[in-house]
Amino acid sequence: MAVNADPAKFFANHELQSKSGSAFALTESNQAWLVKAHQQREQDAQRFVDALRAIPELSKQLSQWSKLSFDDRMKLLPAVFEVECQVLDMECPELVINNTLYPTRPVNFVFDMNNPGSGLVYLNPDKLKAMEPYAPLAFLIHETRHAYQFQLAFDAQSLLAKGYKSAFTAQSTLSGLSFSDFLTLLNEYEAFQFGNHVIGLLYDWHVDMPMMGTFASQFDRHGHLKIDLVALANQQQKSKTLLNKYNEKAQVQYDLRSKGKQ
Asked: Would you tell me the crossing angle of helices 70-87 and 31-53 to the nearest 10 degrees?
C-alpha cells in the first residue's frame, strides 16, 4: 500500500515552517543549532553505548536482540531506560509500558508546556509487536531523548535549549504539518537522529530503520547521514534555500514511501 502518496503531505512546506522558523531544522538561522546538536548527539550516543556495553549481562542480551522473543525484548527496556537517564544526567521521566494509556498509539512522549516536569514516556506492546524487531528499542531511546530535550528546554538558556523549547511549543500549537514538517521540528529531528545513531553503534550500522524519521535523521551502512543538513547548508547554491535543497534530496524517500517500500 502506498504511504504519503500526496506530495503535500510529505514534503516540507515553507509557508507553514515560516510561522515558527526557530522550531525547524530547515530554517537558515538554525544552522549553528544544527552544528551544535550534531556534536552533542555524537558525544551522547557514544557515551550511552559505552555505558550499555559496560554492563556485561545487559550488553550480551542486547547483542542477541534479534534472537530474543518479543516479551524478552520488552523486559530489557526498563534497564536500557535507566542507563539512558543516567548518561544524559536527567531526571527519569515516568515510563509506562502497557496497551491501555494510549491504546491507539504505539509510542508517545507526554509533556505539558504550562506545567513542565520530567515528562512521560509511553510504549504500547500491542502496537510495537507488529513492527520491525528493533522498533521497541529504537522508540524507547527516541522517546526518552525527548524527555532530555524537554527538561533541557526549561532548565537552561543554551542554544540547544532555546531550540528545543521552540520546537515543543510549535508541536503544541501548529497544525497541518506534513511528514517532513513534523519530522524536521528540532526535537523530532534530533531524537530520531539520536535513536538511529545509538542503534547504529550497537549493531555496526547493519540495522536499517526506515520508520525512524526522515532521511535527515537516518544513517547509511557506513554511519553517514542519508541527508546531512549541515553539509547541505554549506553547499554553494545561493538560489536555493536549505528547505528546497532538503525537498530535492527527500524525493528518494518520497518515492520509496509512495511505492509502499517504506
From this structure: 120
The set of cell numbers assigned to 77 is 527496556
DSSP string over 140-162: HHHHHHHHHHHHHHHH--SHHHH
Torsion (CA) 192, 110, 99, 213 in degrees, nearest 10 = -20
Query: How confident is the model over 153-197, as pLDDT tens digits?
Result: 999 899 999 999 999 999 999 999 999 999 999 999 999 999 999
Tens of pLDDT, residues 15-73: 999 999 999 999 999 999 999 999 999 999 999 999 999 999 999 999 999 999 999 99
The span from the CA of 17 to the CA of 170, in Å, is 9
What is the spatial distance between Cα 103 and Cα 101, in angstroms, rounded to a whole number? 6
d(CA 123, CA 45): 21
209 CB contacts (<8 Å, ≥6 apart)?
A: 132, 134, 135, 138, 195, 196, 199, 218
Tell me the β-bridge partners of 219: 225
Say if pTM beats, i.e. exceeds, 0.90: yes
Look-up of cell digits 542519508: 226
